[in-house]
Amino acid sequence: MGRKTSQKMRELHRYLGFFLAGIMAVYAISGIALIFRDTDLLKQEVSIEQTVQPQLSKSEIGPALNIKKLEVERNEAGTYYFENGSYNSLTGEAQFTKMELPYLLDKLTHFHKAKSGQPLFFLNIFFGVGLLFFVLSAFWMFLPGTKIFKKGILFSAAGLLLALILLFV
Q1: For residue 84, which of 101, 65, 102 has the smallest C-alpha distance?
Q2: SS3 of 40, please?
């Protein structure tokens, strides 16, 4: 039975690996891009003109324009000025610039960050379960007691230790 289970795990590992190869590439690219989300790397400046509800208070402008941490710098004759833009409280017109990733890279990063209310979250769960399967099925690739299996256990322990050190440092 041990040999049959090992063979089945190897097959599942192989075919699931082929199936998830494209998804893994997307997650790898978007994950690398997300590391730099607090910088303007790969981003381009986009000018936005938007009309929202007039007569918003200072604290309501940011959420209405979908700008996090918006701070109004000054108010002149009903026009609120903030970094990279302005909001006319009389008309509700806002003009501002912001830095955005190119279209395709933006779509990839949203794919990576899908939340539970979005349809893509099912794919994220499937992908996470698939990665956990890869972790577990890797231990069926070689027979226990062999030199390569023992070496694999040492490498696995070293990888886990490195991840824990980086997590808590």
Answers
A1: 65
A2: coil
Tens digits of per-residue pLDDT, 7-22? 999 999 999 999 999 9
Residue 111 C-beta-side C-alpha neighbours within 13 Å: 18
Helices 2-35 and 121-137 meet at what angle, rounded to 10?
130
Q: What is the CA radius of gyration of the chain?
A: 25
What are 120-157's pLDDT values in tens digits? 899 899 999 999 999 999 998 888 899 999 999 999 99
- 108 vs 33: CA distance, rounded Å: 9
Residue 6 confidence (pLDDT)? 86
Q: Are 84 and 96 in contact (CB under 8 A)?
A: yes
pLDDT tens profile 59-79? 999 999 999 999 999 999 999
